[in-house]
Amino acid sequence: MRSTFVRPMLLISFALLMAGFVPAANAQQCTNATLTGSSGFTFSGFVKDHGRTVPFAGSGISTADGAGNLSATITASENGHVETFPYTGTYVVNPDCTGTVTSTNGGANFSFVIVGGGKEVLGVATDPGGTWTIDSKKI
Fold first, then answer.
1. Where are the domains of the chain?
2. Does the pLDDT at position 9 exceed 50?
3. What are the tens digits of pLDDT across the range 35-91?
4. Using an 8 Å Cβ cutoff, are 110 and 101 in contact?
5. Cα gap 105→71, rounded to integer Å
6. Looking at the domain that runs over 32-138, which CATH code has it been given?
7. Contacts of 108 (CB under 8 A, 6+ apart)
8. Which of 11, 23, 76, 127 could covalently link to 58 via disulfide, CB atoms 3.0 to 4.6 Å apart?
């Protein structure tokens, strides 16, 4: 009796789980304009420094103009050495809410995903020698 109950329940559970992976007809569509205004962010991970892997972390405030331009003031700690510096870049947002940021002043480049209708951005650095992530939230 138990196996006749368990098997259908497993199939129903699996079907419900898989239904969560089907895109909704009204799934969020994103554009560069999804990213506008100021956000606070933190980042952490590891970078290469003269052949050594060292910890890297920081925070800052960024401003996106909705047209693909980004600026920020960053305070970062690389292996305990703290520095504040400006960052500028351009970004491209895809309709599926993923995107990329390319630095225009020699800083880091990264890939990201927009969540919560633009309230938060999660990213990962894409430059060789570094492994770090960033989390940015609308102010």
1. 32-138
2. no
3. 999 999 999 999 999 999 999 999 999 999 999 999 999 999 999 999 999 999 999
4. yes
5. 10
6. 2.40.128.20
7. 125, 127, 130
8. 76
